[in-house]
Amino acid sequence: MTLHQPLPHTDAAARPDFGPGFAAELALELAPMSLPGRIRRIAALGRAVFTTSLGLEDQVLTALIADTRADVRLVTLDTGRLFAETLALMGETEARYGVSIEVFKPWKDEVDGFVALYGMNGFYDSVEARHACCHARKLQPLGRALADAEIWVTGLRRGQSGNRANAPLAEWDVDRGLIKVNPLADQSLYALQARARADDVPVNPLHAKGFPSIGCEPCTRAIKPGEPERAGRWWWEQDERRECGLHLSASVSGSRAQPKVTSSASATADI
Ligand code: SF4
For position 72, what pLDDT does the model report? Predict the structure, then answer.
């Protein structure tokens, strides 16, 4: 794995051909394609970055990228609070597929600032504190990870939560000025589990212990039978729409012929 030291933020060069209309057309184009076909098409679009959290969806995507030899950078956000199982899976995945996963970590002064203000585990005390922690440990590194990206590839899936029920295959990320592609948006959990088993894709052992969605260790618990997939994330908060913020930027959905601006709080394993 490649550890990235803090770098100054550099904006990706603007792509005049990209925008809401392009995203809408891309979503329509991707819909009938096979998953390998989608990955190849996405990689051909430009500089693509896949943010993996090593969850089931992301492991299937990593396998697809490796198997198709698609030119897509693999990056992950190591928040410093991940499960040991997640960190171990990173090395196992690199060895299995012969790929390198670039690791982006939070800046020390950002974490120190959070700890000074709220305490190391202050995220339990208020939504404000939790968002501040997610900002320092996830959103800030995500900005660096996507600094040079024209296309952001995610493992969002519509079935992960109500927030993500309308996740399109492609959308225009207004805030980041890039095309966000969710090639597994229309896939079921069952189908991805079956694919992972058939292709012997390495998966996080926590999935088998009741963790369908895996994030930071102090903020993730196993779910009970019948609970929604993401009920174990920030379980102490009451807001059913809770997210870490990675997928909350304003976007223009590519799932409609007439694009409309939405708040895209789509889908796991989103670190
Ligand atoms: S999930 Fe929890 S530990 Fe991880 S960045 Fe967010 S608040 Fe901090």
Answer: 98
**pLDDT computed for residue 76 by the predictor:** 98
Place of tokens 């792509």: 15
132 lines ligand 1 (CB under 6 A): no
Residue range 2-263 forms a domain whose CATH class is alpha beta
User: Which residues, 6 or more positions from 151, have their beta carbon under 8 angstroms from its beta carbon?
Assistant: 42, 45, 46, 47, 48, 49, 178, 179, 180, 181
Q: How far is CA 130 from CA 88, 164, 232, 249, 267, in A?
A: 26, 21, 15, 17, 19
Q: Is 105 in the pocket of ligand 1 (CB under 6 A)?
A: no
H or E segment and range at residue 64: helix 56-68
Strand partners, 49: 73, 152
Q: Could you tell me the pTM of the whole model?
A: 0.88
Token readout for 157 is 């899936």
Q: Which atom of ligand 1 is nearest to the CA of 138?
A: 5
Q: Tell me, what's the pLDDT at 245?
A: 60
The neighbouring-strand residues paired with 16 are none
Profile the chain (271 residues) by mean pLDDT over runs of 10 residues: 48 77 97 98 97 98 98 98 98 98 98 97 95 96 96 93 86 95 96 97 97 95 90 84 63 46 36 48
Residues with a known catalytic role: 244
- Nearest 10 degrees: Cα torsion 216, 178, 254, 45: -110
